[in-house]
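Limitations
The structure tokens in this dataset are predictions for the assembled complex, not deposited experimental models. Users should treat interface geometry with appropriate caution, especially where small molecules or nucleic acid strands are included. An illustrative entry is reproduced here so readers can see what is and is not provided.
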Amino acid sequence: MYNKKLNLVLLGLALVAPFVLYPVFLMKVLCFALFACAFNLLLGFAGLLSFGHAVFLGTGAYVTGYVMTTYGLTPELGILAGVAMSALVGLVYGKLAVRREGIYFAMVTLALAQLAFFFYLQTPFTGGEDGLQGIPRGNLFGLIDLTDNMTMYYFVLAVFIGGFLTIYRTIHSPFGQVMKAIRENEPRAISLGYKVNQYKLMAFVISATLAGLAGSTKALVFQLASLTDVHWFMSGEVVLMTLLGGMGTIWGPVLGAASIISMQNLLASGPLANYIHVVMGVVFVICVLAFRKGLVGELQKVLRKNSG
Amino acid sequence: MATIFDINLFALFGQLLVGLINGSFYALLALGLAIIFGLLKIINFSQGALYMLGAFAAWIGLNYLGISYWWALVLVPLAVGAFGILMERTLIRPIANEDHLYSLLLTFGIALILQGLFSHGFGSSGLSYPMPEALRGGTRLSFMYLPNYRAWIIVFSLLVCAGTWFMIEKTRLGAYLRAGTENPQLMQAFGINVPLLVTLTYGFGVGLAGLAGVLAAPVYTVSPDMGANILIVVFAIVVIGGMGSIGGAILTGLAMGIVEGLTKYFYPEASNTVIFLVMVLVLMVKPVGLFGKEA
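Predicted assembly:
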């Protein structure tokens, strides 16, 4: 009951937000929020720390950008192509990465992501250092022109809600329960007869697919796909968003993404513009040392204390 | 010029030499990671940043304090090691009992801070460090030209690796270290100061990164992102070799450097991805790594 009300309020806020705040800023937040939610599905619910999630964001962005520019597809088809490719890369990388656990899993995903980074740097279709610029937004279903930022915003909001609900359903499905069981006690899950690696792989692919969706959408919003999207720093950024917001919570990554993007926007124009990496590093250290549950996690703790 | 089967031996040996040098750095960094992992069970994400710190410390020492290369070779690893000890005591120790992923994230944050500070302070274009006087020039061998400094890097880092291996595998201190890796509680019960051992191990592992930084300064440009780039490669190497054995880490590091060098000669387009491809291959064939033990 309480949650339903909260969700309605949030939805209402999201609908009126572009009249108050810059739509482009809001779209950026939504794209990164979806990216962080997808990442959180893997880290927060399956307990797998991927340090290479930028690959899926970047793959979605590059493929969507390429097919939109070259073949002049409609945006929904462009996004579909980007998402499909991210899912495929997710399947291949996931198959390799689930062979190792814990710290090794993080290193394997980071190294695989670097492999993809060099691929995108060298292959001609990505435009190398320049990236793909001036990607057309096109007409949604051939009907709705997305050039206007307000129209685009509601499209991005719809994509976000779709992705978010998918994650919500995944977590609250029997599959999600098994995922949590594996996170809590892998040997026991194995002894109960679950094929742990297949569950991990499935989680990895879903996460990669949704990260690709975020990347594809982001490419349309900014009409740009560049190496920044596949750089290891981007992988670190999504980890930070999730950690700051609260890993393993539904809303944490959204709040984390909004906080980090706002912080970057504020810093970019202030005296600390050159210290963005330093500030992010400091936030990392503070999060790990002082509040590992993140903003939402700590909030839940306070609320629980007050109600009980 | 000597050519066999269309292979330009001069160029081939040149690339092999570059590969061997890269391999020496990989070996030093992988060794540091493996030592730290053995006792602390954490992956030090700031190892690359500390390598960068070592190179910058040497540069700053030379340009502002008049510390020569040879002194830097002694002082910088100590300073970086001391910095590491400070890091271990103040930041890593408090979360030692949490999930090890947190310490990974913590050291990643520290790496971001260090890299950000240096790129602001010194720009990201990179600085050059002069070759030490005594090691300038080179030797002309029948099949290649061998610059003295490059030979020095290989010989010296091999000596350091061998010395570290000997210390860990053959001395009493190394026995403590290995015992601590197996069972720290029992060690503590025998009256050995495990927390101190942990701190010193971390300091030593990090000091190796600082040493690699000093060695690298005259051959690579000293730049803020030199650490991040090499670290990801070293991670792949650690996955290939497995962190179970010290010797394994050293050998894999050197071998991968050579593989990279050969690729640079035969198929240059793949030279910066070949190590990751080897990692993929190893993951498919022997997921625990070449020297890894089944968990």
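Some entries come with short summary sentences. For this one: The mean pLDDT of chain A is 89.
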